[in-house]
C-alpha cells in the first residue's frame, strides 16, 4: 500500500459518497488533504471524523461550489498556501440531475448539470494544472461514469456531461503528459452512495429497495459496488505506483458495462 505522507491531494465533493471514501483511504495513508464541498455542515462533519481517526493526516477544508470559477481558483490558491504544492487532484464533485426524458427535461436543471459536471471539472483542471506544471508534475483523476461510456434512460444531461468528462480527460492526458502530469477518469457503475440512494427513491418512491435489488440483479456480480472499492482504484491512480497509466477511462462496475443482452 503506497504511502501518501507529504503528498497533497485536493478532493472535490469530499463531504460524502465517493469523495469521502477516497478522503478516508488517503487519510489512512497519511496524506495532506484539501477537502472541498458546497455542503458546509457535512464537510465539517467529515473533516472532524477523519481528523479524529487519522492523526497523521493533515486537513484543510474549503467551502466552494465547483461551478463557480472564482471559488475554484480560491480552493487551489488556499491549498498552495497551506501545503505548498498539489501532487494529486480528485476532480469528483458531480450531480445526477433529475430523471426525465430528453424532450421533457427541465432546461434549468439541464444547465445546472452542465455547470457542475462539465464546467466544474474544467475549472478545476484550469487552475490545478499550472501548479502541477510549476512543481514538476502530478496525478489527476476525473470522475466520469458508466454513463460516460453508455447511454442511460432518462438522464440525458448526466450522460452528455460524463461523456464530456471522458473527452476532457483524454485531451488533458494528451496536452500535459509532457509535463509529467498523468490524467485518467474513473467510470463507476452503481456504487451505493447518497446520490445513488436518491436515484432509487426517484425510480420507485414506494419501494426504493426493490429498485436497488432490480438494478443489482443485472450486474454480473449481482450486487452494487462499495465506495471503498472505488477509493482503492483512485488511490492507485493518484499514487507513485502509477507511472504510465494516462488518458484512460477506467470502469469500476463489476463488469456491467460489457454486457450486451441478458446477464
Ligand atoms: N455513486 C455512483 O454510483 C456513481 C456512479 C458513477 C459516477 N458517479 C460520480 O461520482 C461523483 C460522486 O458521486 P457520489 O455518488 O459520491 O455523490 P453524492 O451525492 O453521494 O456526493 C457528492 C458530493 O459532492 C458534493 N457536491 C455536489 N455538487 C457540488 C458542487 N457544485 N460543488 C461542490 N460540491 C458539490 C455534494 O455536496 C456531496 O458531498 C459524481 O461526479 C458522480 O456523478 C457516482
Structure description:
There is one protein chain. The protein is of the alpha/beta class and 263 residues long. The protein has two domains: 8-189 and 226-254, Rossmann fold; 191-224, no CATH class. 46% of the residues lie in helices and 15% in strands. The protein contains eight helices and seven strands; from the N terminus they run E-H-E-H-E-H-E-H-E-H-E-H-H-H-E. It has helices spanning 17-27, 40-53, 69-83, 107-134, 156-176, 194-203, 208-218, 227-238, and strands at residues 8-12, 32-37, 58-63, 88-91, 138-143, 181-188, 249-252. It has a seven-stranded parallel beta sheet with strand order 3-2-1-4-5-6-7, sandwiched between helices. Helix 1 links the parallel strand 1 and strand 2. Helix 1 (17-27) crosses helix 8 (227-238) and helix 3 (69-83) runs parallel beside helix 4 (107-134). The chain is globular and about 50 Å long. The two termini are 34 Å apart. Nicotinamide-adenine-dinucleotide (NAD) is lined by residues 12-13, 15-19, 37-39, 42, 65-67, 92-95, 116, 120, 143, 145, 188, 190-191, 193-196. It holds the Pfam family adh_short_C2. It is an enzyme of class 1 (oxidoreductase). This is Glucose 1-dehydrogenase. Keywords: Oxidoreductase. It comes from Kaistella montana.
Strand order within the widest beta sheet? 3-2-1-4-5-6-7
Radius of gyration: 18 Å
Give the low-confidence spans: none
Q: What's the overall geometry?
A: globular
Portion in beta strands: 5-15%
How far is the N terminus from the C terminus?
A: 34 Å
Please give the CATH class of the largest domain.
Alpha Beta
Total beta strands: 7
Amino acid at each position: 500500500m503506497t504511502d501518501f505522507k507529504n503528498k497533497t491531494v485536493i478532493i472535490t465533493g469530499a463531504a460524502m459518497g465517493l469523495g469521502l471514501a477516497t478522503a478516508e483511504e488517503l487519510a489512512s495513508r497519511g496524506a495532506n488533504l484539501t477537502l472541498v464541498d458546497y455542503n458546509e455542515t457535512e464537510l465539517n462533519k467529515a473533516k472532524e471524523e477523519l481528523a479524529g481517526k487519522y492523526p497523521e493526516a493533515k486537513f484543510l477544508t474549503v467551502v466552494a461550489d465547483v461551478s463557480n470559477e472564482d471559488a475554484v481558483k480560491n480552493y487551489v490558491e488556499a491549498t498552495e498556501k497551506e501545503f505548498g504544492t498539489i501532487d494529486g487532484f480528485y476532480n469528483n464533485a458531480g450531480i445526477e440531475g433529475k430523471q426525465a426524458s430528453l424532450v421533457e427535461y427541465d432546461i434549468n436543471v439541464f444547465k445546472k448539470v452542465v455547470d457542475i459536471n462539465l464546467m466544474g471539472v474544467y475549472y478545476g483542471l484550469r487552475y490545478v494544472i499550472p501548479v502541477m506544471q510549476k512543481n514538476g508534475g502530478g496525478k489527476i483523476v476525473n470522475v466520469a461514469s458508466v454513463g460516460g461510456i453508455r447511454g442511460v434512460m432518462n438522464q440525458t444531461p448526466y450522460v452528455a456531461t460524463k461523456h464530456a468528462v471522458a473527452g476532457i480527460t483524454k485531451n488533458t492526458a494528451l496536452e500535459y503528459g509532457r509535463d509529467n502530469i498523468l490524467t485518467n477518469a474513473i467510470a463507476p457503475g452503481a456504487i451505493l452512495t447518497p446520490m445513488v440512494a436518491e436515484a432509487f427513491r426517484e425510480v420507485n418512491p414506494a419501494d426504493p429497495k426493490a429498485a436497488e435489488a432490480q438494478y443489482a440483479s443485472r450486474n454480473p456480480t449481482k450486487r452494487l459496488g462499495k465506495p471503498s472499492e472505488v477509493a482503492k482504484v483512485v488511490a492507485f491512480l493518484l499514487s507513485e505506483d502509477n507511472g504510465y497509466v494516462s488518458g484512460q477511462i477506467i470502469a469500476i462496475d463489476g463488469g456491467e458495462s460489457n454486457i450486451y443482452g441478458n446477464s
